[in-house]
């Protein structure tokens, strides 16, 4: 099915009042613009993969920031099998975490949140302690030099 046609079906659901909001997933900048146009400016979110290991969605994040559309990074810690290795795989995340007395995962989420107010990471968790750790990222303030080090990874 052509992309415009599938987004048009979502527009019809919005117009009919059957859904209140519309989001898309795994979209590139052209698709984001096209979807937002078809939806009459009513696109509210884009859910794309984004993590220290997968940064190719930076242009989409920037566009969402520009348009005021929520950007929902999925697998922000690198996936369930890699989240625990984040600090050992990416030394700056570990070094900054130690300096703040927090986990590398918390630093990762704080780094994402610092990129734009439209970023809403969806880390997922199966344990209460990791849920609390992820939530604490909203209070972790990273300095400009720290953010630059993380961006350079």
In a nutshell, what does this entry contain?
This protein is mainly α. The chain has eight helices and three strands, in the order αβαβαβααααα.
Can you walk me through this structure?
With 153 residues, the protein is mainly α. The chain has one domain (3-151): TIM Barrel (Alpha-Beta Barrel). The protein has 8 helices and 3 strands. It has helices at residues 3-15, 29-38, 58-67, 86-89, 91-100, 104-115, 128-136, 144-151; strands spanning 22-25, 43-49, 70-74. Strand 2, helix 3 and strand 3 form a beta-alpha-beta unit. Helix 5 (91-100) crosses helix 6 (104-115).
The main β sheet shows up as:
3 strands, parallel
Helix-strand category:
mainly alpha
The sequence of SSEs as H and E is HEHEHEHHHHH
Number of strands: 3
What is the terminal-to-terminal distance?
38 Å
- Percent helix, as a range, is 40-55%
Please tell me the CATH architecture by its name.
Answer: Alpha-Beta Barrel
Topology:
Elements (H helix, E strand, L loop, with lengths): L2 H13 L6 E4 L3 H10 L4 E7 L8 H10 L2 E5 L11 H4 L1 H10 L3 H12 L12 H9 L7 H8 L2
Parallel strand pairs: 1-2, 2-3
Question: Any key phrases for this structure?
Answer:
3 strands, 3-stranded parallel β-sheet, mainly alpha, TIM Barrel, 153 residues
């Amino acid at each position: 099915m052509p992309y415009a046609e599938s987004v048009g079906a979502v527009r019809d659901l919005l117009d009919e009042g059957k859904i209140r909001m519309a989001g898309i997933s795994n979209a590139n900048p052209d698709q984001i613009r096209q979807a937002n146009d078809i939806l009459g400016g009513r696109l509210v979110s884009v859910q794309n993969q984004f993590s220290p290991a997968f940064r190719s969605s930076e242009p989409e994040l920037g566009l969402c920031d520009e348009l005021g559309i929520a950007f929902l990074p999925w697998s922000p810690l690198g996936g369930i099998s890699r989240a625990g290795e984040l600090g050992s795989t990416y030394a700056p995340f570990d070094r900054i975490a130690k300096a703040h007395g927090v986990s590398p995962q918390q630093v990762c989420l704080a780094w994402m949140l610092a990129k734009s107010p439209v970023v809403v990471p969806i880390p997922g968790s199966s344990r209460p302690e990791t849920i609390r750790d992820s939530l604490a990222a909203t209070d972790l303030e990273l300095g400009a030099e720290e953010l630059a080090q993380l961006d350079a990874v």
